[in-house]
Amino acid sequence: MIVVENLHKSFDGTPVLKGISTTFEKGKTNLIIGQSGSGKTVFLKSLLGLFTPEEGNIIYNGITYSEMDDDQKRELRQQMGMVFQGSALFDSMSVQENVMFPLKMFSKAPLSEMQDRVDFVLNRVKLTDAHHKFPSEISGGMQKRVAIARAIVNKPQYLFCDEPNSGLDPKTAIIIDNLVQEITQEYDITTVINTHDMNSVMEIGEKIVFLKDGHKAWEGSNKEIFRTDNEAVTNFVYSSELFKKVRQMYIEERN
Ligand SMILES: Nc1ncnc2c1ncn2[C@@H]1O[C@H](COP(=O)(O)OP(=O)(O)OP(=O)(O)O)[C@@H](O)[C@H]1O
């Protein structure tokens, strides 16, 4: 579980995050949404410990980041898995080498044990015969699966995904969303996903934090987002004609 309290982050005196407080629970897919420039990436990077906030706290399973010593911070980093935008696989490494990479970095286990773990996670993301292929030889959806396998290979407590669906067709995107949600529930991970994708919001948005100009303008679930009258949210969600129709249908159904 991650608790965020009054988080402030600025660059060269320009505030980007302006006092965000929220909670991301274990076993749930938590989504950060908002317009371009609203601060989603800065927020996600702050959760990853890549930015130091000027004010506020981030509390990981009860321990405040700013109060952790170096060993605790190192341990926390090992508990974090990350799926980057565009997968960010190493082109010169095979699928299994990509997945083994974080294991080799953090674990002193014998190679056979690491291989078993790699086989297990590749199997879990339903990639059974791609071990020796290179990223350029597999589809975008398969690359995402490899990225997910690599992110979970160290049994993380926290999983962060930056635009996990970018570049995927809608059908593949839903499959990847569902995979992330299943893994989150199965291994009781605290998952935080930065997304633009309204299909993801509908499909897996168990908790959604909507950012506007560095503030948390709204939070709730995918069931609540289509019912809210919050103007900032409705302007964002219904900028798409499709979702305007969905809302109209809902209002007609309600009346
Ligand atoms: N390292 C940085 N140094 C200075 N300013 C930054 C830095 N990172 C982000 N910003 C600024 O912070 C603001 C929020 O950026 P951020 O990337 O978090 O937006 P975003 O909501 O993720 O947008 P997008 O959806 O386009 O990725 C922007 O004005 C950006 O220019």
From TrEMBL:
Highest taxon in the source lineage: Bacteria
InterPro entries the record matches: AAA+_ATPase, ABC_transporter-like_ATP-bd, ABC_transporter-like_CS, P-loop_NTPase
GO MF terms held by the record: ATP binding; ATP hydrolysis activity
Domain named ABC transporter: residues: 2-238
TM regions (residue ranges): none
Keyword line: ATP-binding, Nucleotide-binding, Transport
Coiled coil: none
Protein name as annotated: Phospholipid/cholesterol/gamma-HCH transport system ATP-binding protein
